[in-house]
Amino acid sequence: PTDCEVKDFRMSGNTASYRLVCTGEHAMTTENRITFASGGYDMDMKMATNEGGRAMNITQHLQARYLGACK
Asked: What is the DSSP string of the chain?
């Protein structure tokens, strides 16, 4: 993506939500929701893009946990 902008950012308690809108050759829009917890976070993302005239919709769920310092 060439130009990306965060829109509609909201923080409520331990949860953040926002949209990421990118324009240019590889334009896309994502809707994101992150819930922070002790030692990590959970994130849900929905992405919509159009590559070569083909619409693509992707849904992703991430779980991140702190495992310790790098060795």
From this structure: --EEEEEEEEEETTEEEEEEEEESTT-EEEEEEEEEETTEEEEEEEEEEEETTEEEEEEEEEEEE------
